[in-house]
Specification:
This protein has 546 residues and is an alpha/beta fold. It has 21 helices and 20 strands. Strands 2-10-19-18-17-16-15-14-11-12-13 form an eleven-stranded mixed sheet, with helices on both faces.
Length: 546
């Protein structure tokens, strides 16, 4: 539910509850975390969005006025669905966003709503957009009083073409909007954020809802900008289908994940649905190995082997009795286990000494061509050996799953630089090594050579707990063993583990084993199959990231 204004707030229709449940508080909490998304939702930079808009107008012959009309009327329907009563006041700029806002106001006025607008910049929007409707206009210096008289505010000041901190009088209007205490609906993006990087260089609108046009812009999914967007709703406004190679990014939506989840044949045998070898856990570090192995089990691995220190045998066989234990110091047994496995997960608490490196090399050699996932200590062991990583990637499908610190060791780039542009960091490493790269963060992303970057859409800070990386590795390893490519396996693991965390709705009490136990429900219920707002032109709908 989007925060409203007093009695004027109306909840939107949500997906049906889990079969057999009642509308309990915890059920409502789960539904409020639901993400909706069509299978193909591109994620664009500001430059890509401008190029698409230009092509539609110049090569496809769609007039700019038609796009404004579609955008404004679609946003008006979203606003009316969420806030069906009360006075609406828009802050209007002189560019395309200002035109979209005027169309929205004119539409609401035609529907009987009381509306007005604040002229937020020196440029006046095209009066022909009003279609002879007369709207109350308020100068920028009176913005504060105008917003206090509103029930809902619309941000139509700045669009994707702006850069840097907003200047006056727009900055003052933004301060007045934020200080009004009224819910704000931002058009395309909250004014003041960078649509590509997600940076917030100065004053910026704090929206309750952002209605973005065509496809979401990359910066809207990244912090700190994501915390300014509120509920993020993407609407179709008449753009033609976007070829996959035209966008640098795409979203991992419920429909995308459901369409790629490996399917078990009715007569499948345990050795035919994925045999995983987990190489993890030096002496005294059985926990990481147990978490990764348990995750692979719950993600659907048909046969599990865990190779660890002999000192960990008892606890691992107690925690994950379904897995066959292999003493990693037993060369013959380890080689046999590796040769009988379809995919390798290596790294969680493996160790970073020469012994660990020698064991890792032996296992890889015993699994020629088999897909491998390298995480945690395995990444640290190979961080200074780019040639070894490239050789491994040339011999098999390879997935690297670093967090920013591990990415820094792999690339030699400082962590702040990686956090400032995770897309460039992940894509650069993927191209250099020739492997898929899952860079963990908020949000986590997946890069692979020659492919659009995939950006996760589910999960939250509930996942900020030790062991979640091990859980993610085990989940991805099960998908690798089932035949998914490293890129798809990484994206599926991100989505379904994140969805499991959302469904658990345990807040700070969430642990990695609870995520694994909730995977079954996330597979059965990846999210709503139709827009929760009931508007068919909505292509993506993500609640605020909490």
């Amino acid at each position: 539910m989007v925060p409203g204004h007093g009695a004027r707030e109306r909840s939107c229709p949500g997906p049906r509850p889990w079969p057999g449940s009642v509308d309990r508080l915890e059920d409502r909490e789960v539904r409020e975390r639901d993400v909706f998304g069509r299978e193909a939702v591109a994620l664009l930079t500001a430059e890509e969005a401008a190029a698409v808009d230009r092509e539609v107008r110049e090569r496809r012959g769609v007039p700019e006025r038609v796009l404004m009309e579609n955008a404004g009327r679609s946003a008006a329907q979203v606003l009316d669905r969420l806030y069906p009563r009360g006075r609406v006041v828009a802050a209007v700029g002189g560019g395309h966003n200002g035109g979209d806002a005027l169309v929205l106001l004119r539409t609401l006025r035609a529907w009987g709503r009381e509306v007005a607008y604040v002229a937020a910049t020196g440029r006046a929007p095209d009066p022909e957009l009003l279609h002879d409707f007369t709207l109350e206009a308020v100068p920028a210096e009176d913005a504060g009083a105008a917003f206090l008289r509103a029930d809902v505010i619309v941000d139509g000041i700045l669009g994707t073409g702006t850069r840097g901190a907003p200047r006056e009088p727009a900055a003052g209007v933004i301060r007045a909007m934020n200080g009004s205490g009224r819910p704000i609906i931002a058009l395309d993006l909250p004014s003041g954020i960078d649509p590509t990087t997600g940076e917030v260089p100065g004053e910026a609108v704090r929206a309750a809802v952002t209605v973005t046009f065509g496809w979401p812009k990359r910066g809207l999914l990244h912090f700190p900008a994501r915390s300014y967007c509120g509920r993020l709703v993407a609407v179709e406004i008449g753009f033609p289908p976007l070829a996959e190679d035209r966008a640098s990014g795409a979203l991992i939506t419920p429909a995308w994940a459901a369409a790629r989840l490996p399917i078990r044949e009715p007569g499948a045998h345990k050795t035919k649905v994925g045999r995983v070898l987990v190489l993890a856990g030096r002496e005294g570090m059985a926990g990481a190995a147990a978490v990764a192995t348990h995750a692979a089990l719950r993600a659907g691995a048909g046969y599990l082997r865990v190779a660890s220190s002999a000192a960990n045998r008892e606890i691992l066989q107690s925690l994950v009795p379904e897995a066959l234990f292999v003493d990693r110091a037993d060369r013959e047994a380890l080689a046999e286990a590796a040769g009988a496995s379809d995919a390798l997960v290596a790294g969680p608490a493996l160790g970073v000494d020469d012994v660990a490196r020698e064991i890792l090399d032996r296992v890889l050699e015993a699994m020629p061509g088999a897909p491998a996932l390298l995480d945690a200590d395995a990444l640290t062991l190979l961080a200074g050996d780019g040639e070894a990583l490239r050789r491994i990637a040339s011999e098999r499908p390879l997935l690297l799953t670093p967090h920013p610190g591990e990415m820094s060791r792999l690339t030699g780039r400082p962590i702040p630089e990686i956090l400032a542009d995770p897309h460039a960091a992940a894509t650069g490493l993927a191209e250099r090594i020739g492997s898929a790269v899952l860079l963990k963060g908020a949000p986590s992303i997946v890069a692979a050579p020659g492919e659009p970057v995939l950006v996760n859409t589910v999960g939250s800070s509930d996942l900020a707990t030790a062991g979640m990386g091990d859980q993610l590795s085990g989940t991805a390893g099960a998908f690798l063993a089932a035949g998914a490519t490293p890129r798809v396996a990484a994206a599926l693991a991100l989505f379904y583990a994140g969805r499991a965390a959302d469904l658990a709705a345990m807040g700070r009490s969430l642990g990695p084993r609870e995520v694994s136990e909730m995977l079954a429900r996330s597979f059965a219920d990846p999210g709503p199959s139709s827009p929760p707002l009931g508007l068919p032109f909505v292509t993506f709908d993500q609640p605020p990231r909490w």
